[in-house]
Amino acid sequence: MGAESRTSGGESATRKLLLYGALLSFSSIFQMGYSNAYPNTSIETFKGYLNESFDGQLDPPSFSWLWSAVLNIWFIGFAVGSLLAVPIADRIGRKSCLMIGNAGNVVSATLSCLAIPLGWWWLYMGARLLFAVSAAVSMNSLILLLQESSPASLRGTMSFYAEMAFVVTNAVGVVCGMRVVLGWNLLALTGVAIVPAVVSLLIVWPFHESPKFLLLKRKDAEAAKAALKFYQNADGEECDRFLREAEEETAGDGKRGQEEAEKAAGITDFLRVQHLRKGLLLGFLALQLTSSIWPILYLSTEFLVRANIDALTAEGVSTVMLMFSTLSTVVGMVVVERFSRRRLFLSFASINVGALVLFVISACLQHSWDEAKYGCIVAICLHGVSYSFVFPVVPPLPFHVSIAVGPIAWFLTAELVPLSHRATAQSVALCANQLVGLCFSFVTLPLYDVIESFGYSGSLIFVPLFIAPGIICIAVLAWQLPETRGVE
């Protein structure tokens, strides 16, 4: 009876923790996912909005550069926010940092909405900059809070919630951006984000701080035990064991003692210490493999139209792609703790890069064989699915392969370094990734135009920007990336 009671209690604690993760993630990430997706399917309405802002003087090449700037200012804001998240999360806590990020989401959503009736495109662009900063602060603190409040057996599942929320709200955004929904009304389209942004503040308020942060940063064992009871229904013995394991985690491999764990983490540590430098580099390379999702997320409708697919079908394909991505993330979340993290990630990366190769080949063939354009549709859907899907291939095949996606990249860096340097590593890796993403994503649409002006498919720009770098990253990670599943 006692064993059954403990099992029942453990299942109840797991369900509660999963519910907490869902509430925190979906409320905090809504603005990030929704506002990055609706410009994709509402691009024609935004063309009219920008053209009216310039009194009808905006020609197509100018639109490409301006629209690219409006979309990709996100990367600058996210990079800045990633750096700001380090001192905030380490000094005032993960929960408080999340509250600050969510408050910024409320302000940015309101400004985005005001920019539409005022006709001030620069205000809309500034609001995107602010919401990118806020999203970075929220995302970094959310991942840390979820990881540090969970047992090792659930850490990957809880970390998946951030990406789950992102792709789900992507799907909501791309559906709302369709002209048959809200894509024709930019005021309503932008205003939708205000409500969940406000709700997110109310949801986060009653949550406890991360138990590991309370113990190792604030040295408050009693508050850490209270947080453990809140998140995991832990009894006294379980609290003592958790706190003991948390202290052992910071002690490293025996050569680095508790003194190192108590030092303030600095960026220079990643230049001096080999294991920190390697963890940061591998985390950055993993994140780079997700960089192609941004031009697909922003511009898949435009890419499909240029592959001779009608606009309504292109909107529908972009919507279906994100729907598949959402369903795939659900599957990935279920099995992330059952299979090798390393195998899942490397398999995902190969499929993801392969989808881009298929798109380039199909788009190039379409000029001489119109039926090849359907290969572009397959490629876009495969890219979205491979970004979020995990599926074990079982016998009768003579090998075992798992296909996975981007969610792992978002929390892999945090698993490759000790807790004392986790916030710094996570933020620096994301910051560097966003700066590179800015350069690549910003030039994608304008260079698409340049290549097409010479009579070739603009999709060829994917080769130097995403395909070749992706292959290099996969090779390095296959050589050096360790397994992190279930390991402190």
Description:
By secondary structure, the protein is mainly α. The chain has 21 helices and 2 strands. The protein has helices spanning 2-41, 43-53, 60-92, 94-118, 121-148, 152-176, 186-191, 194-204, 211-216, 221-232, 236-251, 258-262, 269-272, 274-288, 293-306, 311-335, 341-365, 373-388, 407-415, 422-453, 462-480, and strands spanning 391-392, 402-403. Helix 1 crosses helix 15 (293-306). The longest helix is centred in the N-terminal third of the chain and has 40 residues, at 2-41. The two termini are 32 Å apart.
- In helices, the fraction of residues equals over 70%
Number of DSSP E strands: 2
Q: From N to C, what is the helix and strand string?
A: HHHHHHHHHHHHHHHHHHEEHHH
Oligomer: single chain
Radius of gyration: 23 Å
Which class do the helix and strand fractions yield? mainly alpha
Runs in which pLDDT lies below 50 for 5 or more consecutive residues are 1-9, 253-264, 389-405
Largest sheet: 2 strands, antiparallel
If helices are DSSP runs of H or I spanning 4 or more residues, what is the number of helices?
Answer: 21
| Average pLDDT metric | 77
Separation of the first and last Cα atoms: 32 Å
**Overall body shape:** globular
GO molecular function: hexose transmembrane transporter activity
Keywords: Membrane, Transmembrane, Transmembrane helix
Organism: Pristionchus fissidentatus
InterPro entries: GLUT, MFS_dom, MFS_sugar_transport-like, MFS_trans_sf, Sugar_transporter_CS
